Amino acid sequence: xxxxxxxxxxxxxxxxxxxxxxxxxxxxxxxxxxxxxxxxxxxxxxxxxxxxxxxxxxxxxxxxxxxxxxxxxxxxxxxxxxxxxxxxxxxxxxxxxxxxxxxxxxxxxxxxxxxxxxxxxxxxxxxxxxxxxxxxxxxxxxxxxxxxxxxxxxxxxxxxxxxxxxxxxxxxxxxxxxxxxxxxxxxxxxxxxxxxxxxxxxxxxxxxxxxxxxxxxxxxxxxxxxxxxxxxxxxxxxxxxxxxxxxxxxxxxxxxxxxxxxxxxxxxxxxxxxxxxxxxxxxxxxxxxxxxxxxxxxxxxxxxxxxxxxxxxxxxxxxxxxxxxxxxxxxxxxxxxxxxxxxxxxxxxxxxxxxxxxxxxxxxxxxxxxxxxxxxxxxxxxxxxxxxxxxxxxxxxxxxxxxxxxxxxxxxxxxxxxxxxxxxxxxxxxxxxxxxxxxxxxxxxxxxxxxxxxxxxxxxxxxxxxxxxxxxxxxxxxxxxxxxxxx
Length: 487
Ligand code: AMP
Ligand code: MG
Prior knowledge:
This protein has about 475 residues and is of the alpha+beta class. It is about 40% helix and about 15% strand. Helix 4 crosses helix 16, helix 11 runs antiparallel to helix 14 (about 390-410) and helix 16 runs antiparallel to helix 17 (about 445-455).
């Protein structure tokens, strides 16, 4: 692999260099051949032969420079002070086959100076959820970390019950969080200028060619975050813990905990069991993204050339960029070009899906059957289910809407078909799917993880390895159960 270690050369206050603490008897869970190919990992015989040892913390390749990063953050709206990699290590930085730098981060690798009250470990349950979700989002086209693979072990880990310790090799374009800036501002403000230079040169080099590079960089951070959260809303993804230490400066999904994908559409849905006020509910995500950026960007006032007006100008881009990206995406889900008429009809449909508590993913995908019910036989079954579950009022709204929608969509039916196909997945990672894979894995069976991995690799194509359980939401009167924060 082509290494590009740069973080390990930064000021030593920013990290603690240490090897992982080995897991007991690590065994293969699953290996991601796509990530391996992207990294060039698959061209290295030693890495291929010893990947389980590496993920289990028993072998660190000679060129690697494992370190725990320090950062800080606001958790649930409150300043949490110093945090850091309490159970993960940045193991190496690698230039991928496209020339982009990628971080290899081993999660579940044991105690570090930043572990606070934790044990430094990750359990199999949350490891599988992160592994499958990173893959699912990546394949849906949503910027996200994904993982090279994961291992399970005999190391016992206590959560609500005793569970198996596991480790995941997370691969992300960047592990610098908004919370890194907050840590520097509070604990090492003399580093802000050089750390900003590092972020600019490493992740936003194009900003160097602008009159005020730091302002251009901050603008990009705001825009990428806005687009990411628009993608989450369009996909129905709820992150669950949008603390400032869980958002990357590159606008890529990081740190999966009690996340979920929307099933029956309910904008106020809260997926995190510990989120008692709904701060991180699905519908609050756009506002929280802005709040997080505000906390972070204010610290750049310390730099020359950056004043309040500059920060405000950057932040003011958030809402229009979010709205533009979300609205275009919503029109595409209906196969329509972006205009006011399309938006109106899209939001009418969303309102119907919400009031009827229909499944978000299946409702959109089922619309393909309106184009050709023979070619889209599977989608016809979704549409039939959608219609059969409608209330009498819902049914009459649907009939009226359907006529107007077909008239609009028929203006360019082939463009509509392509847009609808590529913007409405058949498969998302429903909580119950992940749970079935976890239950089997806890018995030593990883075939279900492998099957879901394959299913989520091409989420827009109907596949014969799917079962009805993969596409069935909870019953109409059942709440989508929240997920425990423990991991
Ligand atoms: P999270 O809410 O998962 O983003 O974690 C918040 C902070 O707690 C991060 O600094 C983590 O590294 C740390 N942390 C979470 N779980 C553990 C654990 N089991 N052991 C040590 N640190 C942990
Ligand atoms: Mg975190």
